[in-house]
């Protein structure tokens, strides 16, 4: 008898470097375990739309808007092609934005940037025009709210849900990790976070010390 596949949902904003590192850990676990991952959206633009703090500069706003532009194209890919292609597109975007350090290109010309990302994935480059299609925003907002319904508010990206829809479903913001665990280390961390996320009554585990992100 084969091993049954387990499920997890991963909520991402493509602009977030911490979400990117965590997502590569999730992919590393997928290589070793029969996990099906739902690639879902949480928007930093939506989260911060009423933000008035001094730290929320025009540069931050522009970056978060660029994430929305990318999300819109990802949503069109979801509608036309499904979840696995969303994951592939997120991989292409993340590799370019974070290790590739091309964030400024997405901010400056989102349609051209997303056209290149679609081409990398073998998808129709004309879908890049959806960077301007605000009809996708309703779904992106709904996804962001769905993530918050699982964790509560006052969190960010990424959010992981273990066993969505099952009796032992559990969600947490994070983990925020500075480098990508590989091999057995990835599995040990996964098992630990899954236990924490699915333990009744467990609400928070946190420290503020943080290393710079390492994308390799």
Radius of gyration: 17 Å
Reported for the largest beta sheet, the result is: 4 strands, mixed
Structural class, by secondary structure, is alpha+beta
The succession of helices and strands, N to C, reads EHEHHHHHHEEH
- Mean model confidence by pLDDT: 93
Q: Counting H and I runs of at least 4 residues, what is the number of helices? A: 8
Overview of the structural elements:
With 216 residues, this protein is an alpha+beta fold. It has helices at residues 17-32, 44-47, 58-81, 83-97, 103-108, 110-120, 137-151, 183-197, and strands at 6-12, 35-41, 159-162, 170-173. Strands 2-1-3-4 form a four-stranded mixed sheet. A hairpin with a 7-residue loop joins strand 3 and strand 4 (170-173). The model has no long low-confidence stretch (mean pLDDT 93).
């Amino acid at each position: 008898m084969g091993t049954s596949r387990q499920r997890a949902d991963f909520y991402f904003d493509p602009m977030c470097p911490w979400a990117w590192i965590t997502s590569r850990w999730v992919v590393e676990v997928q290589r070793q375990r029969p996990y099906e991952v739902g690639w879902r959206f949480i928007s930093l633009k939506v989260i911060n739309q009423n933000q008035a703090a001094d730290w929320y500069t025009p540069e931050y706003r522009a970056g978060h808007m660029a994430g929305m532009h990318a999300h819109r194209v990802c949503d069109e890919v979801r509608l036309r092609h499904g979840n696995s292609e969303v994951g592939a597109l997120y991989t292409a975007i993340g590799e370019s934005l974070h290790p590739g350090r091309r964030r400024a290109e997405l901010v400056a010309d989102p349609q051209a940037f997303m056209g290149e990302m679609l081409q990398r994935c073998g998808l129709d480059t004309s879908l890049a025009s959806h960077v301007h299609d605000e009809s996708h925003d309703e779904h992106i907002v709904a996804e962001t709210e769905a993530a918050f319904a699982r964790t509560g508010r006052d969190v960010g990206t990424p959010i992981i849900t273990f066993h969505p829809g099952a009796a032992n479903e559990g969600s947490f913001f994070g983990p925020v990790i500075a480098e990508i665990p590989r091999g057995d280390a990835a599995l040990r961390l996964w098992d630990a976070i899954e236990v924490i996320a699915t333990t009744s009554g467990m609400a928070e585990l946190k420290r503020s010390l943080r290393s710079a992100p390492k994308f390799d």
